[in-house]
From TrEMBL:
Organism domain of life: Bacteria
Pfam families in UniProt: F420H2_quin_red
Listed Gene3D superfamilies: Electron Transport, Fmn-binding Protein, Chain A (2.30.110.10)
Gene Ontology MF terms in the entry: oxidoreductase activity
Protein known as: Deazaflavin-dependent nitroreductase family protein
Length: 150
């Protein structure tokens, strides 16, 4: 039996919120670590944008997809690289997708920082959820380590 990857479609209110966050971030106002992600479309090759929360944890930086296997996740997997924007500053990066096991501390840190914002997308999962619950949920939350300076 094949199961579909977890994906939560954004609501109209979510689209409005994303639009506001993107506008602020493009104009140099980062809300709790927000950036605008630029990634080439896997079919069109055109730049696609999406606001994301850039997580700094353990000396590394990560992108986590709280809505699951979204279009930006699929595009980033295909491209392997992208660009983050804050104001007029652009930063090119290579993306390294984390294994489910590698995600556990990253998910916990992400939930600690942004559960208030992404709570509608994560169900009952919390930063203090038992390890077994995080492990069971990990496949539904793609995460990437951001590598710069090549």
């Amino acid at each position: 039996m094949t199961t579909q990857p977890r994906y939560l479609k954004p609501s109209k209110a979510g689209n409005v919120f994303h639009g506001m966050v993107s506008w602020l971030t493009r104009h140099g106002v980062s809300l709790w670590g927000s950036r605008v992600l630029y990634v080439r479309g896997r079919n069109s090759g055109e730049w696609r944008t999406n606001p994301v929360n850039l997580l700094e944890h353990g000396g590394e930086r990560y992108l986590v997809a709280p809505r699951g296997h979204t279009q930006w996740v699929r595009n980033l997997r295909a491209a392997g690289q992208g660009r983050l924007r804050l104001g007029n500053r652009y930063e090119d990066f290579t993306a390294v997708e984390l294994s489910d096991e590698e995600k556990l501390p990253v998910l916990r840190a992400y939930l600690r920082k942004w559960a208030w914002e992404v709570g509608a997308f994560v169900g009952s999962l919390r930063a203090d959820s038992p390890e077994r619950e995080l492990r069971a949920a990990a496949p539904g939350f793609p995460a990437f380590r951001i590598v710069t300076g090549h």
